Amino acid sequence: MNTAGDVAARATAGFRQRYGGEPAGRWAAPGRVNLIGEHTDYNDGFVLPFALPLRTVVAADRCDDARWTVWSELDDQPVEFGPDEVDEPGGVTGWAAYVAGVVWALRDAGHTVPGARLAIASDVPVGSGLSSSAAIEAAVLAALADLGGLDVPAERRPRLAQRAENAYVGAPTGIMDQSAVIRGRAGHALFLDCRSEEVEQIPFDLDAAGLAVLVVDSRAPHRHADGEYAARRASCEAAARALGVPALRDVPVAALPGALDRLDDDETRRRVRHVVTEDQRVLDTVALLRSGRIRDIGPLLTASHASMRDDFEITVPEIDTAVEAALAAGAYGARMTGGGFGGCVLALVDADRADAVADAVRAGYAERGFAAPGTLTVLPSPGATRLD
Ligand code: ADP
Ligand code: MG
């Protein structure tokens, strides 16, 4: 893994090489991981993500005419576009759509976006579920807002970045990723109510407690993830209709037994049980963190995993192996994080045991004949910011 300083240096070097001269500034935005609260977002429920130390950095300056040139170290070719391409979604495709989408969303909200040259470097793995997409959106948004002196308050930025991704790129995502990477704070997790979109900073100072979160990138091939996601979502929406509530968030955990009695197939009952108990686990996690009891959230993380595995049925063998190996090696709790069918696992561990737990996960993988996973030890880190 590169350190954040290296990423910033790579963005600057890319800028100098592509455009000549020095950038006017550098802006960074992190990836994120969801501590707990899976498949609760589209049920109007609760999530608790935090920002990662891995970051995407944009080195940029403004230019006189309203044209944008963007280069990323992921692609040799810079992409250039003008006002015509950001009048409507669809004018720019491929990875640069995430950049053009931010320009479009800002213009659509009535801002005069300055032309700019941007060079992008990143440590956030792409497509692993750690939200490299929100990181690039948030870093570009911060750069363009500062370069143009635009008045875009922090609380409005997640919506703008989400519009770039939903309406311009065409990827349906909730507000969690953009909220976490823009509003995240070091030593805190972000408690987000997906119905009201209210956020609250929850103390999660792993470092002070001698703890860390180990993130395991399962490297499992995503198997039918889109279709399965749509099926879970449809099942939850149908259950809410059958129960006569706007969303499953409106079924309190105390009312769960009665609600399950009113549903007539076992699969739907299990789907509902996951969502309703998962919302409660987020609330319980928040309550424990508010009273400083970080280690005690371990069993909630592990219960969340069991619920995803047995009731929501969205885990895969690589993921279950990583969770079991982490727990056997002494993690306080472990769970899959993200939409499922691959992606990442997180484990709450003593900081001085993180390497040993990572070794145990790799050994568990080797025993099962799986290709080696990626591992990374993280602490809750700052959200999007200007570097210099
Ligand atoms: P995730 O957000 O989980 O990493 P997504 O599929 O949502 O996965 O977003 C990944 C896409 O975002 C990439 O395929 C690419 O188009 C774009 N992207 C993310 N980071 C970068 C980057 N540093 N440079 C260029 N494109 C990027
Ligand atoms: Mg994404």
UniProtKB/TrEMBL annotation:
SUPFAM superfamilies: GHMP Kinase, C-terminal domain, Ribosomal protein S5 domain 2-like
Catalyzed reactions: alpha-D-galactose + ATP = alpha-D-galactose 1-phosphate + ADP + H(+)
Protein family according to the UniProt entry: Belongs to the GHMP kinase family. GalK subfamily.
GHMP kinase C-terminal domain boundaries: 287-366
Marked site: Transition state stabilizer: 32
Keyword S-adenosyl-L-methionine: no
Top-rank taxon, per record: Bacteria
Signal peptide coordinates: none
Organism expressing this protein natively: Micromonospora auratinigra
Entry binding sites for ATP: 72, 127-133
Location (main, coarse): cytoplasm
Domain GHMP kinase N-terminal positions: 98-184
Entry annotation: catalytic residues: 177
Residues binding Mg(2+), per UniProt: 133, 165
Annotated EC: 2.7.1.6
PANTHER family: GALACTOKINASE-RELATED, MEVALONATE KINASE/GALACTOKINASE
GO cellular component, one term: cytosol
Functional summary from the UniProt entry: Catalyzes the transfer of the gamma-phosphate of ATP to D-galactose to form alpha-D-galactose-1-phosphate (Gal-1-P).
Pathway recorded for this protein: Carbohydrate metabolism; galactose metabolism
GO process annotations (BP): galactose metabolic process
Binding site for substrate: 38-41, 229
Cell location: Cytoplasm
Domain called Galactokinase N-terminal: residue spans: 15-61
Single GO MF descriptor: ATP binding
PROSITE patterns per UniProt: GALACTOKINASE (PS00106), GHMP_KINASES_ATP (PS00627)
Name of the protein: Galactokinase
Keywords of this entry: ATP-binding, Carbohydrate metabolism, Cytoplasm, Galactose metabolism, Kinase, Magnesium, Metal-binding, Nucleotide-binding, Transferase
